[in-house]
Amino acid sequence: MAGDNSQGGGVDTPVLNVSGYSLSYATPSGPIHALTNIDLRVAHGQTHGLVGESGSGKSSLAWAILRYLPENAIENDGRLLLSGESLRDRTLPQILEIRGRRISMVFQDPSTSLNPAMRLGEQLSEVLIRHRGLTSQEALEESEAALARTGIAKPKDMLRRYPHEASGGEKQRVVIATAFACDPELIVFDEPTTALDIITAQQILELFNQLQDETSISALYISHDLGLVSRVADVVSVISAGEIVESGTCAEVFRTPKDDYTKALLGAVPNPKHWLGVAEPPPETPALMSAKGITVEYGRQSLLGQLLAPKPTHLGAQEVSIEVRKGELVGLVGESGSGKSTMGKVLSGLQDFDGTVRFGDRNFARLTEIDRAYRRAVQIVFQHPDASLNPRQRVREILSRPLKLYGIVPPEQRAERIATLLEQVRLPREFADRLPHQLSGGEKQRVAIARAFAAEPELVICDEITASLDVSVQASVAELLVSLQRQTGTACLFITHDLNLVRQLAHRICVMQNGKLMDAFHRDDAERPDRNPYTRALLKAVPPPASQAA
Amino acid sequence: MTLGYLVRRLLAVILVLFVVTFAVFAITMILPGNAAVMILGEYGTDEAVAALESRLGLNRPWYIQYLDWIGGILRGDLGQSLRLSLPVADVVGDAFWNSASLAVTALVSVTVIAIPLGVLAAIKRGTVADLIIGMFSYIGASMPEFVTATLLLIFLAGPALGLFPAGGFVSVGESLGGFSSHVVLPAATLGLILTAHISRQVRSEMSEVLSSDYIRAARLKGLRERRVIRRHALPNSLAPAVAVISLDIGYLLGGIIVVEEIFAWPGLGRLLIYALENRDLPVIQAITLVLATVYALSNLLSDIVIAILDPRVRYA
Question: Which H or E run includes A47?
């Protein structure tokens, strides 16, 4: 295979050589520059990390390399060389011979990149049939071996399954096996772990490193996550607004970043050793909210539904007890499907439940007992500000709703209060006139936070409020939340999957898995050896960023 | 899909049909005038009408008539036609097969034409081919049957060309050629709207599938476009089209009544109009029940086909 891989150049020729490459997209309002003067080399057996935030152009570069550009793309100058051969002047039939055979790709989300109506075996073996001319029987046998190398226990069985019959990790292993199947010269990894759960992501990362050792494949590893890239890449390039701002070995870039943007990015990576949160309330502080034995059953059916198509119900939460004290920030951590958002919905009065919620000196035993006073005192901020802000309302209207609803200030003072709220979340007061689509993602989330604090709540539930934001924005939103807590003394339940982040903010951390509360501990006790095994597995899956660890 | 699911669905179909029998019976009861009045016409003295009513059993309480009818159906006896003095099963049976030959011809040609048209429009999205197919669809979808039928009759059956007979019926058994020439115009009338509808549906499903991540992944594996379309895109865009086709069967059953009348096709539609004009209750009831059964079963069939096309759909 090595002979094939070096075609068109000696060992010194980089597998991928991008030089002076620029790309823009034609739009009705003029061209948009996506990439400017990109220089990037991937040497034999090297993993090159490409780190950038959303809109930085990192995906555009991947599409350019795979020659999968939209019709409005305009390539200006520069070269794209695969083992010394130019990719730019290839015809489509030639490109089809290269894709999957000489360059392959691993995608972000295996649940959308696999065809739901085809068996996994066919999706894997079709590249072998296409590029290596195997019969379907030979291809299936080869696929089985390829799948076994990715650590799938029963590869033969897996080949017969459809995507919906496999877990996220299994599906991504199939995608990876497909990418490796024809022994390509270069594999482009586009955020291959972002859509996966923490522990699964860690396993996929380990698999990547293992395959990298075994095959010495050359890889371009695209990610927004600096900490993650530091664990797989030899060389890192940082891309911002279509330009590579810094490039060097992993150790160089992480220890001695030169560019300001890189420094800012590194500084924004959450690090549990760097405490951001407010001072812990004294131990004798009474509980503000105390939920006991909360159980939520999803999928209850009507009598007719049970008759025609009975489905099993499913417990979203099972006997979960959580307590938040005045002024405290409690972290609620778990993977997707763990029930952490279910708890958020219960406590914000959006979901019926069994059990009791005690708030102040009042008890609530079901959804219908949750009243206006409770809803005012407990506010929620959701993950996606795009979905939680009404696109047709101006910021002024969005913020005045809670003010009106709960009569927080007299009508003549509303405008002034809206300005104050905007300033509190560090937005200019002129933003009151804007519509949500005129704001960036981080700005929208600030408006959502301002709306929650407008009601002057005693408890704010933050449901993954940083998950859809870029790293640098994430940090500033977290910091904002803490400063609001400091000013108002509001307690907070911070729901997240990001353990490093929550350890910077939370006094106490609760861990959920499959609807159950697995563990609850004080932040100082996080790394105690007698921690619950699941908590330990989670912590192990997200080691602190490399710069500090090194 | 489990056997239990199929059994439950069949039970649901039976439940629906039972409700339909009740609704049909209630409506025919409310209709003004009865068969006795219609048969006797202007000669119907009160005594004569009463005598005929009693002979036909129309003077019994409604629930007795209903139970009598239901009991008959369960024994496979649909009763006697009040007007034709023939067993309902014979009258409706003949008409059913005539209608079925028309409906099946229409549906098969629609499917064979509409799906490739939709796929073509999606692949050639934004080109002249897409534009022409789109225009055809809009025109087809916006013309009611009687307009389509009139236009087809004028242009293809009129004195100028005279390619096809203007109406009438030859059964498949008698002469396949005769059947074919007679079936073209009514089937085309029925099919035009459906073709337009289904091809648009396939186009929009196909376009969506073509922009999905897994199609991009398939292309980035270096697969040839033909395989990407046939093996990756088509099965995923057909399942929703099948759902639409099964809903369109309901439309087809309604359309057939108008079309059979225009083209003098001796099917269920014509018979239904005749029976309605003559208050021939057993015939009306039988036809309505047959149409409802066809609709319910075709929906069940489409669910089964969808489950085969889309492995994620698993009925338990």
Answer: strand A47-51
DSSP A299-328: ----HHHHHHS----EEEEEEEEEEEETT-
Catalogue the E-assigned strands of A186-339.
186-190, 218-223, 235-240, 243-249, 287-298, 314-325, 329-333
Is the Cβ of B226 closer than 8 Å to some Cβ of chain A? no
Q: What is the pLDDT of residues A134-176, one digit of tens each?
A: 999 999 999 999 999 998 889 999 999 999 889 889 999 999 9
Q: Give the per-residue pLDDT at A1.
A: 38
Confidence of residue A546 (pLDDT cuts 50, 70, 90): low
Q: B220–A104: do the CB atoms touch at under 8 Å?
A: yes
Are residues A21 and A87 in contact, defined by beta-carbon separation less than 8 angstroms? no
> Pick from B5, B216, B222: which is nearest to A98 by CB?
B222
Instruction: Note whether A440 and A360 are within 8 A (CB).
Output: no
**pLDDT (tens digit, 9 = 90+) per residue, A12-33?**
789 999 999 999 999 888 888 9
- On chain A, the residues whose CB falls within 8 A of the CB of B212 are 112
Instruction: Confirm whether pTM is higher than 0.90.
Output: no
Element (H, E) at A40: strand A32-42
- Would you say the ipTM is above 0.90? no
Q: Sort out which chain B residues have CB atoms less than 8 A from A195's CB and list them.
A: none
* Tokens, residue A344: 């958020």
Q: Which two tokens stand for residue A420?
A: 């104050």
Residue-level length of chain B: 316
Residue B186's CB is within 10 A of a number of other CB atoms, namely 29
Q: Residues A518, A520, A526, A531: what is their CA dihedral angle, to the nearest 10 degrees?
A: -50
Contact A116 B236 (CB under 8 A): yes
* Chain A residues in contact with B315 (beta carbon < 8 A): 309
3-state secondary structure of A282: coil
CB contact B55 to A (< 8 Å): no
Closest-approach residue (CA) in chain A for B7:
A308
Q: What are phi and psi of A499, to 5 degrees?
A: -65, -40
Q: What is the spatial distance between Cα B269 and Cα B258, in angstroms, rounded to a whole number?
A: 7
Share of chain A above pLDDT 90, in %: 66
What pLDDT, in 10s, does the model give residues A206-253? Answer: 999 999 888 888 999 999 888 788 889 999 999 999 999 999 998 888
B237: nearest CA partner in chain A? A117
- The stretches in chain B having pLDDT less than 70 are 1-2, 32-34, 314-316
